[in-house]
Amino acid sequence: MKPGIHPAYGPVVFHDKAAGFAFLTRSTATSDKTVEWEDGNTYPVIDVEISSRSHPFYTGTARVLDTAGRVERFQRRYGSTS
């Protein structure tokens, strides 16, 4: 890699505000806020709205939309264009 053109890549804590869940990973994202992690070190923290702990797909609360019924209802209401 060319030196001096890539962003710094280091440990960052991502905090899911919806679930109260935080995890430590590596990223190029930075933040002015910091948090002391379980290992005693201080890392930058980035607040996120949703993660695998709170996303409906991963938690099993996802709903399946009836797209076929919506299309049929639209065609009944407005007719076909042909």
Automatic annotation (TrEMBL):
GO cellular component, one term: ribosome
Alphabetic keyword roster: Ribonucleoprotein, Ribosomal protein
Domain of life: Bacteria
One Pfam family from the record: Ribosomal_L31
InterPro entries in the cross-refs: Ribosomal_bL28/bL31-like_sf, Ribosomal_bL31, Ribosomal_bL31_B, Ribosomal_bL31_sf
Gene3D superfamilies: Ribosomal protein L31
Family listed: Belongs to the bacterial ribosomal protein bL31 family. Type B subfamily.
Subunit and partners: Part of the 50S ribosomal subunit.
Protein known as: Large ribosomal subunit protein bL31B
